[in-house]
Prior knowledge:
CNTLN protein; coiled coil; CNTLN
Amino acid sequence: QQEKEDLQEKLKLREHLSQTAGKSKATPAPSKNIDLEMKQLQCKLKNSNNVITKQSATIKSLKNEVREKEERIRELQEKISRLERDLTMKRHLIEDLKSHLKASQESEKTSNETLESLERKVKALAEDCSGKKTSIDSLKQRLNVAMKEKSQYEQMYHKAKDELEKKDLKLTKLESKMIETECAMIERETAASDQLHSLAKQSAEALKIVQEKLQLTSDKVEEFKTFVK
């Protein structure tokens, strides 16, 4: 850029000199030299402009590349920050996992001891279950015998129930007959009582007559005794 400015100043100076030489009507040889030098300077300026244009494009490309790289750097920095946070979290997580692992190992040790104790208990329970299985088989056999006896007793019960129903029916009939008999006896007792009352009345009247007769007889006896005396 500085070279371009220098060339432009030299070109302006040459143009000014050329104009001054034209006005003063100088000799043709120096004018040709000046024109030739101006053409050279113009070529140099043109070349410089081309170089500047290329360099500007390169600079623009480099700026874009720098911008992209800065963006990429910013993204990478953010990614690094995230990774550092993730790393910190993973370290904390690893520490937590280590503590959990230690607790799990202790718990596993306790669980193994508990498992051994449970295995011993299971073995004892298996032996107990074996004994109980034998006892259950025996109880099943006794239950089968009891079921057969129950079936027999149920048959006997139904048979006895049928007999009892028949006897209840007979008893009902006998009770009906007994009630009829009692009614007949009450009727007969009533008739007999009436007859007894009638006989008692007749006997009382007869007794009264007999007493009167006895009294007369007694009076006659007394009279006879008196007569005999």
